[in-house]
User: Which sequence fits this backbone?
């Protein structure tokens, strides 16, 4: 009889992704409702000490596979280890966070197990024994309630949506032995991006569109820097070559849900809304009072972003100095 | 070098999406259907691989209803050589894992050295089909590719990661998924649209790819849509008044602090 909840966390560049805490916290919430134990899995190199941190988010047990060959992500190796862990421990629910890496891992695991999978979930609920997921479809135009069939039930949670909450937990850390599978995809070179802050995990995203008029995003960068946020861009800004593709927010880019989204010189095409419509608070700055973005925004300012964004930055700085 | 492109037809991203009477699907009528944007990149890349070698074939494979032939024809007009549509009247609803099983079974009947797929389809946004297909076929998968090069049975790719890019390599056969930036898909010219009408496009049922339709009934679904709804309406936008940029900014920052609580 499957029992327990297993959450898979992502440890990269000597730290947990923020979404790791979110997924453990959501696992804790479900484990309390089902009165079942919660285990968190960490795969990496030199992770044993850091792994204990997950106890503070409610993991009853932290399962650690620690080996030099797990330092870099390898889809084959990681899938095979997770498959072994899941088939040995038989959890009823497995949770992942929807990073590029773990979307792939979760899918391969589901295929191997012939299990059900719900991707990019924005809510989870238990109806009796069954896990029901909420997820957006059709470019965030619709919200679906989805039943996950089979066992285990696998859900992949959208980052920045589920709250991370620390709790007292008397968990333990268990080292798990594993057989390293052959890596069929060989890593030749890694090129880290200049910014350590991932767009999908940022609390604040300051985005620019066609209204930027060119590749100079420095006014947005100053505001984002002050707020500890990340820079986003519309498809047209990316197509113009003003920003890298990695910055694109929208239906053919990243889907973000920060607490604050500042849309600068963005008209508000539906394809862009698909990538940021679920943000907590949306501020739109545009010279065109009829821009569709004002239909979706919480706060709108009509005017030039080149006047307004520096003024907003200055105002936030001023307030901070007063404090 | 034979390349198979996995293709999905999706509603135009501009479309107004309506929910059906049972609230478990969308109204398919009156929609404009297009090739999934990420699959356009896949078709383009496959054609470029064939053009570079001046040998081999690009086959476009889709699993979907009859109307999906329009999207396949578009790919043929771009320059793909052949199309295969898997369509079986016995099939009702599907889900990403089931779709992947069907595509993997179809791929076993086609010669290929490389499979190219869009990283996700912009209708169900499930991101699952390519990884699951690779898993079912037992071939390596490289996701979110922005650049690739093939040399003597090996493919080297640059791929997008969460925080940067990586260069990786795998032996063929392999599957890769596309990321924006890989290429600029070409438009089909009018003569090529005409030519595409004569290119082979075959529809096959499940039996033809060695699958038993009885195992693809409603009970086979691993994820089931219980209901669809529109997202909650956002509140009406508050326009910030003011004469100068400073005045407006002060009001906005105050509102973000005191009302929204986000600063």
Assistant:
């Amino acid at each position: 009889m499957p029992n327990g909840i297993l959450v898979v966390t992502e440890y990269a560049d000597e730290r947990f992704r923020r979404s790791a805490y979110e997924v453990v916290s959501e696992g804790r919430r479900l484990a309390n409702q089902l009165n079942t134990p919660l285990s968190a899995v960490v795969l990496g190199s030199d992770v044993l000490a850091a792994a204990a941190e997950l106890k503070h988010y409610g993991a009853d047990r932290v399962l650690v596979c620690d080996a030099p060959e797990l330092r870099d992500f390898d889809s084959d190796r990681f899938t095979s280890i997770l498959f072994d862990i899941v088939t040995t421990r038989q959890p009823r629910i497995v949770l992942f966070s929807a990073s590029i890496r773990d979307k792939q891992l979760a899918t391969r695991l589901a295929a191997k197990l012939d299990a059900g999978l719900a991707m990019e979930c924005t809510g989870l609920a238990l109806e009796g024994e069954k896990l029901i997921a909420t997820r957006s479809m059709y470019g965030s135009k619709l919200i679906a309630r989805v039943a996950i069939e089979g066992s285990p039930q696998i859900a992949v949670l959208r980052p920045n949506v589920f709250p991370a909450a620390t709790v007292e937990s008397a968990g333990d850390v268990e080292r798990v032995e594993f057989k390293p599978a052959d890596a069929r995809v060989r890593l030749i070179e890694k090129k880290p991006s200049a910014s350590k802050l991932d767009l999908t995990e940022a609390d604040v995203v300051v985005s620019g569109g066609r209204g930027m008029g060119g590749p100079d995003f420095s006014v947005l960068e100053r505001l984002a820097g002050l707020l500890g946020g990340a820079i986003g861009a519309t498809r047209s800004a990316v197509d113009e070559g003003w920003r890298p593709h990695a910055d694109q927010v929208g239906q053919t880019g990243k889907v973000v849900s920060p607490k604050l989204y500042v849309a600068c010189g963005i008209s508000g095409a539906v394809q862009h809304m698909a990538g940021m419509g679920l943000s907590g608070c949306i501020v739109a700055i545009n010279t065109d009072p009829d821009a569709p973005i004002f239909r979706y925004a919480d706060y709108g300012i009509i005017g030039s972003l080149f006047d307004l964004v520096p003024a907003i930055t200055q105002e936030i700085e001023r307030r901070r100095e007063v404090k | 070098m034979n390349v198979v492109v996995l293709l999905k037809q999706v509603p135009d991203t501009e479309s107004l999406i309506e929910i059906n009477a049972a609230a478990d699907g969308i109204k398919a009528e009156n929609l404009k259907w297009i090739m999934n944007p990420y699959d356009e990149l896949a078709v383009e890349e496959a054609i470029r691989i064939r053009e570079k070698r001046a040998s081999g074939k690009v086959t476009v494979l889709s699993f979907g209803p009859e109307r999906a032939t329009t999207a396949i024809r578009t790919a043929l007009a771009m320059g793909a050589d052949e199309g295969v549509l898997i369509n079986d009247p016995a099939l009702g609803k599907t889900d990403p894992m089931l779709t992947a099983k069907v595509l993997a079974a179809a791929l076993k009947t086609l010669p290929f050295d490389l499979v190219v797929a869009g990283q996700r389809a912009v209708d169900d946004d499930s991101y699952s089909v390519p990884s699951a297909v690779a898993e079912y076929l037992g071939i390596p998968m490289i996701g979110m590719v922005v650049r690739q090069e093939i040399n003597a049975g090996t493919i080297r790719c640059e791929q997008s990661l969460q925080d940067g890019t990586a260069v990786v390599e795998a032996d063929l056969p392999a599957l890769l998924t596309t990321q924006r930036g890989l290429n600029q898909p070409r438009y089909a010219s009018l003569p090529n649209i005409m030519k595409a009408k004569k290119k082979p496009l075959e529809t096959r049922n499940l039996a033809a790819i060695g699958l038993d339709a009885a195992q693809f009934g409603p009970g086979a679904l691993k994820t089931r849509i219980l209901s669809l709804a529109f997202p909650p309406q956002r509140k009406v936008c508050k326009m910030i008044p003011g004469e100068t940029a400073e005045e407006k900014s002060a009001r906005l920052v105050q509102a973000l602090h005191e009302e929204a609580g986000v600063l």
Summary: Residues 233-263 of chain B form one domain. The mean pLDDT of chain B is 95.
